[in-house]
Amino acid sequence: MFVQNRLAAWVAGVTSQIKLPLRVELWNGQKIDFSNDVPRVTIRLPQASAARYLLTPSLSNLGTAYVEGAIEVKGAAHDMIDIVNALARSTLKADGKLARIVRSFTHDRKRDAESIRYHYDVSNEFYQQFLDPQMVYSCAYFARGDEDLATAQIRKIDHILAKIRVQPGHTLLDIGCGWGALVIRAAQKFGARCVGITLSENQCALARQRVKAAGLEHLVEIRLQDYRDVRGTFDRVTSVGMFEHVGIRHLPDYFAIIHRLLAEDGVAMNHGITSTDPDNGETPYGGGEFIQKYVFPHGELAHIGEVLKAMQRGNLEAYDVENLRRHYARTLSIWTDNFEARADRARELAGDKRFRIWHVYLAGCSYAFDQDWISLYQIVCGKAGRHPRVLPWSREYMYS
């Protein structure tokens, strides 16, 4: 009875502020509606002890409860995320202990490889359930906003290659090459001689298969390799969706390595997620804690100002900076819809727990980008103090 009284008081407090299309089903069969609307989300508490997750409804608490099976949640992922965030806002203080916590992790080759394999080596077929046919696992680029995902991902790759002005015969290094879409496109379209590196064995194996199937083995090499171990000089260097794994304290060294690998008049481009908190904090209400625990172990997001400062310390000069936050919100929204459309197969491939992780992770990240809690920047750069003769004076060349 004590738990039910606490829940009743909490529900009264929430509904006095906001009406939600939410139903909570208790362990004794009681149903509590948070408005007169038809519920779009139902949270079932199988036992009284599960009430504690609702009484402190941080994104981490409720996310953990859902993933671990302590509560049951029914509804579309977008609705689940909207409602959970509304519960958090109405109950928790945004500037309290669940505000944007700043974390720092130790990064070395062993830990980084383990983190990458935890996230990416689920199965290639699992990722095929929600990605485009080329399996590009990074922010797409929408020229109008109504393109299908496959078109927008090709546009993104072409946008990158145009920005760094890849030319026939150029050598190109792609750090964190995923399943090889960018290096394959660069070789096919420009005849560039490419090296793609990844720490994921699954990605490496499929990327090599795709290179062979495209008849590009003479132009493209896929390596299972840490970026810190690459040697040589490249006319162009790209890093797409990888530097989030580097660690904030290690960013100057990361950019210094890109400087070392870049030809004297070479051009590089870093495409990655950033925090919108000037102090490099995580997303609020425990969202960052959930991501650290279940999705990207040891991942760290720096503010764009911190990134540019680290880039300068790595002896690189930023030539062009573009914010693609809205593009990633849209990309993740499409991934979420694709994931739910193929939910049965995704669950078979990943198991119940990992399925639930991805179910809320994709929609949650879309929400975070939409709310400007996190962002995405493409930064074109080159060696500091050099006159970038290879780049035109204006940005017109990127869109021609």
Automatic annotation (TrEMBL):
Residues 16-93 form the DUF7884 domain. The keyword Lipid metabolism applies. One of its GO terms (biological process) is lipid biosynthetic process. The keyword S-adenosyl-L-methionine applies. Pfam families: CMAS, DUF7884. It comes from the Bacteria. Keywords: Lipid metabolism, Methyltransferase, S-adenosyl-L-methionine, Transferase. InterPro entries: CFA/CMAS, CMAS, DUF7884, SAM-dependent_MTases_sf. The active site is at C365. GO terms for molecular function: methyltransferase activity. Belongs to the CFA/CMAS family. PANTHER family: CYCLOPROPANE-FATTY-ACYL-PHOSPHOLIPID SYNTHASE. This is Cyclopropane-fatty-acyl-phospholipid synthase. It comes from Pseudoduganella lurida.
